[in-house]
Design goal:
Layout (H helix, E strand, L loop, with lengths): L1 E4 L2 E4 L14 H6 L13 E5 L9 H16 L4 E5 L3 H12 L4 H8 L1 H13 L5 E3 L8 H7 L2 E5 L21 H12 L3 E6 L4 E2 L11 E2 L1 E3 H6 L9 H7 L7 E6 L5 H6 L6 E4 L4
Parallel strand pairs: 3-4, 3-7, 4-6, 5-6, 7-11, 10-12
Antiparallel strand pairs: 1-2, 8-9, 11-12
Helix pairs in contact: 3-4
Length: 279
Amino acid sequence: MAHRKDGKIWVEGLETQFTGQSLSSLALIDSESHHPTVSVLPDLHVVKIGGQSVMDRGAAAVKPILEELVAARKQGLPLLIGTGGGTRARHAYAIGLDLGMPTAMLARIGGSVPVQNARMLQMLTAKDGGIMCYADDFEKLPLYLQLGVLPIMSGMPPFEFWEKAPKVGRIPQNRTDAGVYLIAEFFAAKRVIYIKDEEGLFTDDPKKNPDATFIPEITAKELLDSGQDDLIVERCVLEYMERAQSVKEIRIINGLVPGNVTKALAGEPIGTVIRSSKA
C-alpha cells in the first residue's frame, strides 16, 4: 500500500537501509562493503591476445596461439578470449588527437580496431566453435560455454562516450587491458592471462633497454609505486586490482614461445604474476 513519507510517495514494505539516503554517505557505503559477491563463472579463464604484440605479427604469431587455445577449449576448459587493438588503434588515436577530439570520442574510435581483430580471430576459429561475443551477449556466455563454443570479444570496454577524462592528457585510460580485466572481475574468473611478446614484466622496456631485469612476481601497488615510465599493462588495471573483490592476480606471458599458453592455462608458474597487495 502506498503512503506519504516526508512528502514523498512510498510503497509499504520497501523500506531498507537505503531509504532516504543519497548513496553518497561514506558510513553507509562502508557498512555495505563487507558483503561477499556472487562468483558468476568462477572456473572461467579469460585470455587477452595482444594487438601490437601478437595480432600485428600476423599468422606466424596468431595461429599457433589459437591452436593452443582451441585445444584447451576442446578439452573442456571454459575460455573467453579478448583482443587488443595494436598499431591501427594507435594510428586512430594519433589522428583523433591531432584533430582535437575529446577523450570520449577517442574511446569511441579506438574501440573499432579490437572489434576487427576479434572478428578475424572468430573467422580463424569458426570451424572449432569460435563465436563473436558482444557486450550485449554477456548474459549468454554461460550458454555459449555449455555448448562448447569459443567466445571471442573485443577487449575495449563499452564506455565510449561515457569514458571519463584521464588525470593527464586525453588518451582513454580504460583500453583493452582494462576491459578484459573488468569483465574477468565481474565473472570472478579463475585466471586472467595477458598474451604478449615478452617474457613478462621487466624493470624497463627490454626492447629499448637490453639491461632491463626480468620481474617474475610483484604486487600491483609495488608496480604503481615503482615510477616506471612505461608498463606492460595499463595502469588503471593495477589500480582496479587494488580494490578488486574477486580477481586479485593476473599473469603476463610470452605467447610467441610454443607451449607457454598451455602452461599458463594449467596454472604453471611462467611469465610474470602481478597480485593485489590486498590478496
